[in-house]
Sequence to fold (154 residues):
Amino acid sequence: MSESDLLAAVQAALRAEHAAVYGYGVVGGRIREGRRAEARAAYDAHRARRDELRRTVRDLGGDPEESAGAYALPFPVPDSAAAARLAADIEDKVAGVYADLVRAASGERRRGAADALREAAVRAVRWRGGSVAFPGLAERAAVPSASSPASPRT
Fold:
């Protein structure tokens, strides 16, 4: 891929991290006490990735995109259960952009993107309580039903 493709993928990851930081602000305000430390750790991790991506954009000769003042949430978040669903949704979306960055990057940048993809997938599992087959690849994330011919028989 070209340098412009790489820069576009890094900027997309940066936008996703901006949104994740915002989203975890909402999660932190709604999540039950027993999961607040987990929400804070995820918030801190996304802030660190965001800052790293800003540096990467500059290293690639670009101007890092700024955070929006606010982001539309995918659904209302009135309570802790909805906050956990939001956290899982955030991680799924972040995993998706890092999957794109893995495809666009090489070398150390690719390893870093793969690490970020893995971390997001692990956090999504923790928030959701279950995993998807191909984290970061939404078109393959659907779980086959028990009656599907592709599902194993027990």
